[in-house]
Amino acid sequence: MSASFTLAEIAERCGAELRGDADCRISGVETLEHAGADQISFFNNAKYRKFLRETRAAAVILRPSDAADCPGNMLLTDNPYLVWARVTHCFSPSPNHQAGIHASATVDADARIDASAVVAAGAVIGAGAVIEANAYVGPNCVIGREAVLGQGSRLLASVVLMDRVRLGKNCLIHPGAVIGSDGFGLANDQGRWEKVAQLGSVVIGDNVEVGANTTIDRGAIHDTRIHDGVKLDNQIQVAHNVEIGENTAIAACTGISGSTRIGSGCTLAGGVGVVGHIELADGVHVSGASVVSRSLREPGVYTGGVLAMPHKMWQKNIARIKQLDSMARRLKTLEKTLARLQGEQDDGRD
Amino acid sequence: MSASFTLAEIAERCGAELRGDADCRISGVETLEHAGADQISFFNNAKYRKFLRETRAAAVILRPSDAADCPGNMLLTDNPYLVWARVTHCFSPSPNHQAGIHASATVDADARIDASAVVAAGAVIGAGAVIEANAYVGPNCVIGREAVLGQGSRLLASVVLMDRVRLGKNCLIHPGAVIGSDGFGLANDQGRWEKVAQLGSVVIGDNVEVGANTTIDRGAIHDTRIHDGVKLDNQIQVAHNVEIGENTAIAACTGISGSTRIGSGCTLAGGVGVVGHIELADGVHVSGASVVSRSLREPGVYTGGVLAMPHKMWQKNIARIKQLDSMARRLKTLEKTLARLQGEQDDGRD
Amino acid sequence: MSASFTLAEIAERCGAELRGDADCRISGVETLEHAGADQISFFNNAKYRKFLRETRAAAVILRPSDAADCPGNMLLTDNPYLVWARVTHCFSPSPNHQAGIHASATVDADARIDASAVVAAGAVIGAGAVIEANAYVGPNCVIGREAVLGQGSRLLASVVLMDRVRLGKNCLIHPGAVIGSDGFGLANDQGRWEKVAQLGSVVIGDNVEVGANTTIDRGAIHDTRIHDGVKLDNQIQVAHNVEIGENTAIAACTGISGSTRIGSGCTLAGGVGVVGHIELADGVHVSGASVVSRSLREPGVYTGGVLAMPHKMWQKNIARIKQLDSMARRLKTLEKTLARLQGEQDDGRD
């Protein structure tokens, strides 16, 4: 992280309007509270206004409407977090891998590895696989037969791509992810299970990110499909024949059952479960740990579950859930009885 | 997938009754809707009857009672999905691995590897391990000391079997699975945790399938046991000393806590949680994302949880959960009061 | 497991008071029910008193107050499970790895590996990494640039430590764990996501255990921090900038969202979900499968969720959840009406 830039360079590279000292040197990023005189920070949340006013940051990325509260140099933008995202990459240590195949990698003679690609130590690449230009196959990754790793895509370490899986350009796959494992297809023969061969594959678009230890199963007949710009966090499970639309982001520990289609521009928070064979419309947002059991055809926010509370409160109240139907019926009866009684009393009074 | 068979060959191999052109050549599988003139399909769900009537498939696997709706050749059976399962394997690309130990694998001198077994690139096999006939140890798998991989069992890629784990015959273990990691055994010493050594192992029967990134912990004293024919999907956690009965199938992201015994012929859907030290009878079926907190001694279907709904509806209603006990009490009071009131009114009227 | 000790040796090594035959030879551990004449067992749960009375164990670890029920030799202690934990290690097979770097490992010339450390087959270690004395890097592990593995810490197999991750002393990391993967940081640009570089790292203290396939993300700006003595089970997800306090133990399949701080001495049971940017006080205990959505500032036990019940019971009652708010309002109305009615009736009677 020894890189250093002038504020003018950063403004130009990241798409913001500079206000202040163009030659000010920036050598890192920090929070408003902790930034020093050579670090840049950002302001995107009103609750940190106190820190903005007191910051010693070399410069702050913020909205023009917040400029009055900033004591120093500024990068003005309508989307401070987006500019911040771009700035972080200026200070991200460059991996600096050398093109070529490491001596300890095992590459099938029938695989095609672009000369600009990197195949790191211990990687194993099967027959017919294609590794395109500037792609990176990290240490101990395994790539199956006829799999395709598109231009500039990176498998960081110990990633497994099974046979015939295809990834587009500029994808980033974190360690331990498994793409193209068999879908869970079983036929029952008088109590005993027989496996249904999973003949489809997984097709992943461009600019897709897949988190650590996430699993994406291959399709039964057709392919499982992850479209351009999808972002998947860690430990997500995507079952066979799922389709995830463009630019949908899914947080960790979410599981999506077979043949479900998720629209584009959706967000699923962490720990969500989605049953199989349903559809979520574009722009559906599911809250953390919710279970989606039916198609959601309208965009909007959906939530389920009963959140944690002090154990005694939970115990006392949750026990009543099993009486809910009875309570509803008794409430109805009471309403009727009371109405009748009220009627009689009114009659009596007349 | 260049294989091709006559319909008669498929009928015989997969156990169905042929009706139509025995010499019809089949070169692949497809859905009823998309099948072409050289592809076989199946009909198992009444909601696709329209597609059955219009299919251009070379042949369809279906029940005799549905034959009237099929325009072409048929394979008749009482269990179409089972025959379909068998047919898919006719068209599954054969892995075609060459027996022997890859030059880049590391095999301890004291391991016994059958001459018909395959040990792929980058695999590491410890002292005393036994790899039986026709077993397959995929790329970058790790097998601990004295572990046993039974006849015809396959570890696809980056699978870890820890020391002394034993797998039976014809098991299939998907990438990233870890079998035999330590159970979570801790003793508390005035706030600080001390580890309990996990001295048991994991014993897995025949024909067991374990999904990608699933973890199965070794037992504390005795072994964790997975019986014949069990099928585990991806990202399942099986804690120490769990026992899973024959032919039980468990879907992805389910977690089973320590010392719990699950019967045979059970199904647990995705995302289920099961607490420790309980028993589930044979034939228990647990719905997706349910949490099982006590023994289930009767077969049947069990469900829990509150499913996702529009966020505002959830917010309004779930807030009331903390009032449930009070509501139940107030309801009871109302009933008593009303009964008394009604009595008095009746008295007054008399 | 051919080790054998006198009962006196065990008593001294494990910190318990011997009562009985000091020379009695112990060659293994077993449950009270199954122990034979050369095995030691423990009694810590009143429900097994029957087995204590009938045990044939060579010796039993138990509280002085239970001594009257023990037919044989005893190790007396106020914390039988803790002494048991120590005894198990006497009979744990020693790994017996030879110091040095395996020929098939790939170690960057700029990494520093202590002469007493073990680097097993297929491991890959990056530039600037430091492997301290007696540390163990298991088969097919990957260690990034400038990562530090402290004295006596062990990565069992296929563990990935990404660049600059630092582990303290005597940590134990189970297979498939990924430490230092990128946090899930995304900025939205008109529907499209841009990645926020994750410039922090992960810092792990001493005596930390991390389960199989658990993932711990690196921080965005600052580090993710796991303090001394924390124990993490399998398949846990720890998001970026989480902090977990000393001696907190977390069971399998739990997910903790970004920037959340968990106190010391907490326990989170299996399958718990914790939202981001909140704090859990020291001594908070969360029950299995609960979802924590707000800061818990008081120690105590917290629980959420609706547990599994027979499906029909669930169906009937859970459908009413969507009427809860309406039920609460109607109950209130009934109470008012009834009170009024009662008043009128009383008035009428006067």
Describe the 3D structure:
Chain A is an alpha/beta fold and 350 residues long. The first copy, chain A, has three domains: 5-90, MurE/MurF, N-terminal domain (Udp-n-acetylmuramoylalanyl-d-glutamate--2,6- Diaminopimelate Ligase, Chain: A, domain 1, 3-Layer(aba) Sandwich); 100-302, Hexapeptide repeat proteins (UDP N-Acetylglucosamine Acyltransferase, domain 1), CATH 2.160.10.10; 311-349. Chain A contains five helices and 40 strands. The first copy, chain A, has an eleven-stranded parallel sheet with strand order 8-11-14-17-20-25-28-31-34-37-39, with no helix packed on it. Chain A has a ten-stranded parallel sheet with strand order 9-12-15-18-21-26-29-32-35-38, with no helix packed on it. In chain A, helix 2 links the parallel strand 5 (39-42) and strand 6. Chain A is flat and about 95 Å long. At the A-B interface, strand 22, strand 23, strand 38, strand 39 and helix 4 of A face helix 3, strand 40, helix 4 and helix 5 of B.
Give the secondary structure arrangement, pairings included.
Three copies of one chain form a homotrimer.
Chain A: E1 5-6, H1 7-14, E2 17-19, E3 25-26, E4 28-29, E5 39-42, H2 49-54, E6 59-62, E7 73-76, H3 80-90, E8 100-101, E9 106-107, E10 112-113, E11 118-119, E12 124-125, E13 130-131, E14 136-137, E15 142-143, E16 148-149, E17 154-155, E18 160-161, E19 166-167, E20 172-173, E21 178-181, E22 186-189, E23 192-195, E24 202-204, E25 209-210, E26 215-217, E27 224-226, E28 231-232, E29 237-238, E30 243-244, E31 249-250, E32 255-256, E33 261-262, E34 267-268, E35 273-274, E36 279-280, E37 284-286, E38 291-292, E39 300-303, E40 309-310, H4 311-318, H5 324-349
Parallel strand pairs in A: 4-5, 5-6, 6-7, 8-11, 9-12, 10-13, 11-14, 12-15, 13-16, 14-17, 15-18, 16-19, 17-20, 18-21, 19-24, 20-25, 21-26, 24-27, 25-28, 26-29, 27-30, 28-31, 29-32, 30-33, 31-34, 32-35, 33-36, 34-37, 35-38, 37-39
Antiparallel strand pairs in A: 1-3, 2-7, 22-23
